[in-house]
Amino acid sequence: MEKHKQEPSADWFERVERDEEKAQEISRPSRTFFQDAVRVLFKNVPAMIALISLILIILMGFFGSSFSSYGPNEQALERSNLTPKIPVLENISWLNVNGMESSVYEHVTAEQAQANAEVRFGDDSEFVTYTVLSEGDGSPSSGQVRADYDRYAAAGMEDEYFYFGTDRLGRDLWTRAWEGTKVSLYIAFLAAAIDLVVGVAYGGISGYYGGRVDNYMMRFLEILMGIPNLVVVILMIIILEPGIISIAIALAITGWTGMARVIRGEVLKLKGQEYVMAAKTIGVPDRKIIAKHLIPNVMGLIIINTMFTIPSAIFFEAFLSFIGLGLQAPEASLGTLVNDGFKALTTTPHVLVFPAVIISIIMISFNVLADGLRDSFDPKMRDR
Amino acid sequence: ACSGNSESGGESAEGEEGQASGDQVVDISISDEIPSMDPSLVTDQHGMQWTGETYEGLYRTGEEGDPVEGIAMDHETSEDGLTWTFNLREDAEWENGDPVTANDFVYAWQRAVDPDTASEYGPYMMAGVIDNATEVSEGEMDVEELGVEAVDDYTLEVTLDKVTPYFESLTTFPTFLPLNESFVEEQGENFALEAENTLSNGPFKMTEWSHGESMKFEKNDTYWDADTVQLSEINAQVVKETSTGVNLFETGELDRVSISAEYVDQYSTEQSFRTIEEPSVFFLKMNQSNDGPLANENVRKAIAQSIDKEGLADTILNDGSFPANGLVPENFVTSPESDEGFREANGDLLPTDKEAAQEAWAAALEELGTDTVEIEMLGDDTDKAQNINAYFKNQLEENLEGLTLNVKSVPFKERLRLSDEMDYELSVSGWSPDFVDANSFMNMFVTDGGYNQMGYSNEEYDALIEEAAGDSADDPQARWDAFLEAEKILVEEDAAIAPLYQRSTAYLWNPALQGVYYNAAGHDFEYKWAYVDEEAAE
Amino acid sequence: MIEDQREKLVEVKNLKQHFKTGRKTIVKAIDGLTFEIYKGETFGLVGESGCGKSTTGRSIIRLYEATDGEVLFKGKNVQGKKNKKDLKDFNRQMQMIFQDPYSSLNPRMKVLDIVAEGLDVHGLVNSKEERKNRVYELLETVGLNKQHASRYPHEFSGGQRQRLGIARALAVDPEFIIADEPISALDVSIQAQVVNLLKKLQKEKNLTYLFIAHDLSMVKYISDRIGVMYFGNLVELADSEELYKNPLHPYTKSLLSAIPLPDPDHERTRKRIQYDPEAYGSNENRSFQEVKPGHWVLCNEEELAEYQGAALT
Amino acid sequence: MARYILQRIIYMAITLFIIATISFFLMKFLPGTPLSAQERLSEVQQQIILEKYGLNDPVPIQYLNYIWNLMQGDLGISFQYDNRSVASILETRIGPSFQLGIQSLIVGSILGTLLGIVSAIYHNGFMDRISTFIAVIGTSIPSFIFAGLLQYFVGVKLGWLPVATWGGFEYSILPTIALMIFPMATCARFMRTEMLEVMGQDYITTARAKGANQTSVVFKHGIRNALIPLVTILGPLAVGLLTGTLVIEQIFAVPGIGEQFVSSVMTNDFPVIMGTTLFFAFFFVLVVLIIDILYGIIDPRIRISGGDR
Amino acid sequence: MEKILEVKNLSVSFNTHDGEVQAVRDISFDLHKGETLAIVGESGSGKSVTTKALMKLLPEPQGFIKNGEIMFENEDIVKKNEKQMQKVRGKDLAMIFQDPMTSLNPTMKVGTQVMEGLIRHRNMNKQQAREKAIEILKLVKIPEPEIRMKQYPHQFSGGMRQRVMIAIALACDPKILIADEPTTALDVTIQAQILDIMKDIQAETNTSIIFITHDLGVVANIADRVAVMYAGKIIEIGTVDELFYNPKHPYTWGLLGSMPTLDSSEEELFAIPGTPPDLLYPPKGDAFAPRNEFALKIDYEEQPPMFKVSDTHYAATWLMDPKAPAISPPPSVQKRMQADKAKKGVLK
Ligand SMILES: Nc1ncnc2c1ncn2[C@@H]1O[C@H](COP(=O)(O)OP(=O)(O)OP(=O)(O)O)[C@@H](O)[C@H]1O
Ligand SMILES: Nc1ncnc2c1ncn2[C@@H]1O[C@H](COP(=O)(O)OP(=O)(O)OP(=O)(O)O)[C@@H](O)[C@H]1O
Ligand SMILES: [Mg+2]
Ligand SMILES: [Mg+2]
């Protein structure tokens, strides 16, 4: 059918001894399953962005507060509720991080509106600049004046910069936000860690021994799950008194059931795998089968599950703060900060915005990263 | 001696009389569901508020803060001041048409004191005031023995235990409201559990009660003074989140909502912004019962003097509250001889003085023989309280070197429980008077007093209070002096408590809502004379 | 008779294995199985999917606790309670090669550790060095090389994995190996590699095999004797040549007639024999009988006579 | 089927009994009595009150009484609301929570499912990105922030819907939206994964080989199979809504059971806490039962074999 | 015979994380009306990918046709878009898959699945479709088709499911039936039934069949012509007799030799050592070279062209080159060739 272009020379037609060794060669470079997973993960752009964001946030949690000279609990009422002011960025007007507090006053005429504003600022009027937005024609709210109040100047700290502003007590929100991040992450990691240990052990034992043991353990689990976790967490917190450790414990007490079920299911599946049988026929003791054959093979699942546990713990902590069962003042977590800010959503939005953004970034990052991990640990996904 | 000074509803209501115009419907928010509408059982602010509006007692607190005609038209007091005879009006009716008679009072009061009713306020308000109340409440005497008697349908005779100058003011309190015996007995367990299980004789009647959600009070046409009542409907909506309340106010769904510090800055220049000063005083309770550092007077003095109350009131509370330098609030009671208020008379006791505080602290440390002290402070867990707690921690730790203050924030009920068991060191507490008399504050701290709860005991103080209640009860000036003296001992000499601030509440208040009066004791707001003047809002 | 002179290595007696699958439902995976395996032979087990071949293998090696009956290995009962030492001993002497080359190797372990696991458990090596060398040796035995020791299973092809499985089984120097469909998941071109290897090993180490498969031509090629299973029971057992030349049980006949052979001419002329279990009736009054020396069939008296007649001709 | 359900109901009862027992003894550990303001009460009164709540009996007797009453549907009397029975408190509060919960579960899961399907159809396309983004945001931002923003912008600024409180249907819209974001996002994420999984199955290739077009492949063959696993997460989602309602009810001033629960916790109202816990647990086991039945309806493989999974 | 399908220089690749997998590399073959073409070759040699490419059912977006033409009734399938393909699939080209357990929708009634194609391609209403479906199910020997129509796949045994799959594929009288290892998951006895059914049906409808398998026994049973694939290429193609009795490619030798025949004796099987190449890194020369006992130097340098053996028989191995040294096939293959010669000789 096909003609080859160049007549091959005759000596090419010599027999070559077959090299048995060579025939068994594996051309692919050697890579472990994990290395493969990591490689796939590294190619997943969103997951990498998420990972980097997380690393940055964790670093900021540890070192962020050292960028400010104020401690997280240092108060000074004279600098209460300052708006954010960030060097360099303060010159970009739409970012609104110049430490100015802008508000619009309305009245029948601009003059009246300004008068109204002056009442509000009282003694501090010298720090306020007024811009007339509309002169007004005598009808209600037609006169509009924008007042830009230089809070920093009024507080006598023109040269200070509070990147995230301050709260009512005059505490530096930058420091508090990163301290809070640290605390929140700590709670989440702690909860996830307890969760992991208990869940993996319980699920592993139940799945591995199967039969009656499994049956009873699962019935017990179902009953535990029948108690809404919210109720348990709240009861635990009442018993243990609010605090970092008790919140983590309370979260873990209900959290591990999910992990246990997942691990059990997987172990149940894995123990039917022939390599487990092979180990049994060799005489490997149960303990070692669990440790060497089962656990490493559910590792991917464990990691993914933990990744999903962490954001939900952060979520739950925020939620507990919201219903008033969070940390004790003056301790800060992202949850308490968001909760504080929420109350002043319309008046001092900066109190809410920064912790809310951080919490959202953490949550999104963990979720995206966990999704990415799931894809990279799943061989089916890998080929797609 | 019922000289109260109740703040009138608002500046705009003062001066010229407004005219009712537009729909006479008012929507307000309350922060919690009412636990009870049974006058004998109410304990909370909202319950008292609405029993106060749906019932009419012997007297009602009037516009000027003094008792005005209620079911009683007037009364006579016997020579010895122990027998009070009230003449009741004959035209007063219950919602169901039954006349309001002296027997309704006898029944209600006996019911309140009866231990089976398990009323908290019944024995508390009546014991030591009405003859035999203590014995009845302890189950030692029959309820019939209580010193109250219906001479005839419209004459009520009350025998007091001892001379009680403020008894007239007491009669406005919910526990002293009448009850329709046949109705209450008929309802049995269900009495006052739902709107249809209540029976009103006051300016308003409860017509709807959606638990946890809202209540509706409509004008009670059978009320003897119905002509005066202008509002046709009051709706009380349960709103727990301040922001939600503000949003509802913004959209016109509420006519009045209380706001937190955060919103004050935003609304302080608005026409609808209003603060109402209350005779509620907040102070640090210092538990002296155990051998903790607070048993040391210098520690207490140091703590009391080192908090910047000015900043607390102006920046953190930011709702019109102001520093308190004494136990008895400002604008509460005045001297029997002049218009001078209690506060002015007694001056600032133990005001903020950081230097003095540090001196006291140094002395205290020396006495204790240590240079680090750890104290736990009990506080509420509301958002406002959390801020206050954090502030105190900072203030105290900054000013008093070597002090570590551990904050423990707990729900209100839990704080009460811990106080009860004296399981605390420092506690941020507040007190609102139950009747308009300095004694409502002062009798708290006598040795083993019900609310002492901190092991404070000073014989001199006890003697002064005893004297005011007993020997000099009918000598107003002597009483007055005794209270002044006692307060000095309590606050200045012993630093048993550290007064913090007197509370005001900031409201967004629809300017159209007028004629609402604030009461110093009993129920907070009086709507009998309230009206909506849409024109005033413009 | 010839059999008597050979040593019985494994004796399966009336073995039953029932699984509870639901509250009430029981799957009788094997139901009263009896046969022997002699030392040094390859015993082939064939039958359709789900007839209980794997279950038989697994019960023999104690992966399942038998419902009833016994399995004697070198005269000792394998089933029932055992002390640790006996178990270990037993584990050394009997090994298994699995069907699925993908799920039979732990994906998270290096080949070195997979193969050495048996050595570790039974304390067969004393030093790291020795362990490594022993593994290299084993790898070479199965036609792989040293380099492979540091790799992970997923890097190997099916045939190579199957050889790893064999190396793992060989590590403890067993006498008896159960090969559960060791080639059915392999490519045609690879199957021969594994079969050749198994044969070579048998010769070198005097191994005894229980070879389970459903590919009859391969089973015939490798086995000395073959048992045909149908629904948890043996229906026929004979020397392999005998079985192919002279199948007696209708199921065996049907099975043999269904095997497609790589010979177009043969295929064009083949006649299939259908087996209709309903027509055949239940096994209630049938028992496993020796029709002629070494040829057993599940039959009743009537059939026995008929079969014996057929066997004679 | 009937036998199966009966068996499940018995099982439910046992679960509830155990939960009741656990919560009873848990409560006994906690400090606090109905005597909220002890100092005002005389000794006699205190005794009378304790008697009323049966707290004078030894704990085992109290327990037996509690269980006995429970079996008769009597959950006791609230500590906080004088003379009010726990049952009547729950009764008035269940309605709004139930409405919010059901609405947001239904709307959320349907929208989420659709998003997930869209995602799977336009795998890696623009629509996929958008819906994945929505899904991630939805699971990442606390619901109370959504609630606050919705209330302020839609309620106050735009004035389209009531800001808060409880009334007709329109009052339930904003809280429903705030509450449904999480289930929606979860369903979307889950559905996307499941759909992708299903779309890779052999029978989908079979369907395509028959010449079926994309719509028919997705809707006739894909969705149903992807829905089967989705059903399993509806249980946890439904229960998870409890957490949401708690906050959403507070923000939107809805008189629901979640809000009641928080305030009972704050006031140590143990009978109500226990009653609510039991109610929540009952709700949970009920949801699980419903889901199992639903499972059978959607998946013919389970339907026939009688539900023993 | 009339050509119904012509595949020319078809190449199919996949994009994976590790790079491009060249699953099918430049293959050409054609299919005649009414014939059965078997494609054999080991796992991963590209059999399924080839057929999926014919149907344009390659997994999106990784799989793509890199090159080549697929001429079906004078139209190039490669150029058709999805809409046009939907008209072709099921109607002209139908497909049966390997695993009957997973190839049927578990949540849809069997009848509906059979009827789906009828309604789509034949514009039948439900009633007509149902009748037709029952007819086809009868054809594939499903007992009581009326009842079975209303059941779900899990209520069917594996063999029955595969018959349902065949019914689905046959529903619209396709011109070409592609069967991708339709019997691999089945027992030999059931496999034999399925093969019989397929042969019967083909005799009846004169459909062309592309039958994929790696079981040479099955090939011998069903095929008219055979294509042998290795590492993405067709390395030998010819009639079934040519391939079984006169194989030319060493790989074909290996395949044939590795199967024991029932009458073979103790000798060792002819095994091909080593493993197939990784298509991520396809070798420069003949992909089979490293495993080839008879490899020549040139095998490592250049890919062999298709050498013509007869009009119908081609093989891609340098051994066919005139310059190549003469080589005798392994004994088992020789035995085959001789047996055949003997037979033919007898005939002559
Ligand atoms: N662990 C188990 N639990 C329940 N049933 C089982 C179990 N193992 C096997 N079975 C059932 O026992 C029967 C025999 O299974 P077995 O695996 O022994 O068959 P097999 O002959 O090896 O089949 P195949 O050729 O498919 O491997 C089957 O019906 C199977 O479903
Ligand atoms: N979706 C995919 N992504 C990447 N590579 C693929 C994909 N599908 C198939 N391949 C590759 O294409 C090559 C040919 O696969 P194909 O499925 O055609 O083999 P086959 O001959 O049908 O094998 P089998 O007998 O196992 O079915 C294989 O090397 C495989 O790795
Ligand atoms: Mg098997
Ligand atoms: Mg294939």
Automatic annotation (TrEMBL), chain A:
Topology in the membrane?
A: Multi-pass membrane protein
Q: Which PROSITE patterns match?
A: ABC_TM1
What Gene3D superfamilies does UniProt report for this protein, alphabetically?
MetI-like
Cell compartments where the protein resides: Cell membrane
User: What range(s) does the ABC transmembrane type-1 domain occupy?
Assistant: 181-370
> Which residues span the membrane?
40-63, 183-208, 220-238, 244-263, 298-327, 347-370
Q: Spell out the GO cellular component terms annotated for this protein, sorted alphabetically and separated by semicolons.
A: plasma membrane
Keyword annotations of the record: Cell membrane, Membrane, Peptide transport, Protein transport, Transmembrane, Transmembrane helix, Transport
Query: Major location, coarse class?
Result: membrane
> What are the BP-aspect GO terms?
peptide transport; protein transport; transmembrane transport
InterPro entries named in the record:
BP-dependent_transpt_permease (IPR050366), MetI-like (IPR000515), MetI-like_sf (IPR035906), OppC_N (IPR025966)
Q: Pfam families annotated for this entry?
A: BPD_transp_1 (PF00528), OppC_N (PF12911)
Protein family: Belongs to the binding-protein-dependent transport system permease family. OppBC subfamily.
Could you tell me what this protein is called?
Answer: Oligopeptide transport system permease protein
TrEMBL record, chain C:
Give the record's GO biological process terms.
Answer: peptide transport; transmembrane transport
Question: Per its UniProt record, what InterPro entries does this chain match?
Answer: AAA+_ATPase, ABC_transp_ATP-bind, ABC_transporter-like_ATP-bd, ABC_transporter-like_CS, Oligopep_ABC_C, P-loop_NTPase
Q: Which residues form the ABC transporter domain?
A: 10-256
Q: Which residues form the signal peptide?
A: none
Molecular-function GO terms, alphabetical: ATP binding; ATP hydrolysis activity
Q: What keyword terms does UniProt attach to this protein?
A: ATP-binding, Nucleotide-binding, Transport
Under SUPFAM superfamilies, the record lists: P-loop containing nucleoside triphosphate hydrolases
Q: Which PROSITE patterns match?
A: ABC_TRANSPORTER_1, ABC_TRANSPORTER_2
- Presence of the UniProt keyword Glycosyltransferase in the record: no
Which Pfam family is one of this chain's hits?
oligo_HPY
Q: Which family does it belong to?
A: Belongs to the ABC transporter superfamily.
Q: What is this protein called?
A: Oligopeptide transport system ATP-binding protein
Q: Which organism is it from?
A: Sinobaca qinghaiensis
Automatic annotation (TrEMBL), chain D:
Residues forming the ABC transmembrane type-1 domain are: 94-295
Provide the primary localization: membrane
**A family per Pfam:** BPD_transp_1_N
Listed CDD domains: TM_PBP2
Task: Name the GO cellular-component terms.
Answer: plasma membrane
Compartments in which it is found: Cell membrane
Entry keyword Coiled coil: no
Q: Where do the TM regions start and end?
A: 9-30, 100-121, 133-153, 226-252, 272-295
Keyword annotations: Cell membrane, Membrane, Transmembrane, Transmembrane helix, Transport
Q: Which InterPro entries match?
A: BPD_transp_1_N (IPR045621), MetI-like (IPR000515), MetI-like_sf (IPR035906)
Task: Check the record and name the SUPFAM superfamilies matching this protein.
Answer: MetI-like
What is this entry's stated membrane topology? Multi-pass membrane protein
Single GO BP term = transmembrane transport
Q: Which family does it belong to?
A: Belongs to the binding-protein-dependent transport system permease family.
Which NCBIfam families does the UniProt entry name for this protein? Opp3B
The protein here is known as Oligopeptide transport system permease protein
TrEMBL record, chain E:
Q: Name one GO biological process term.
A: peptide transport
Q: What is its main location?
A: membrane
* All residue ranges annotated as the ABC transporter domain in the record: 5-256
Q: Where is this region: Disordered?
A: 325-348
Q: Could you tell me one molecular function GO term of this UniProt entry?
A: ATP binding
Give the record's family classification.
Belongs to the ABC transporter superfamily.
Q: What is this protein called?
A: Oligopeptide transport system ATP-binding protein
* Originating organism: Sinobaca qinghaiensis
* Phylogenetic placement of the source organism: Bacteria, Bacillati, Bacillota, Bacilli, Bacillales
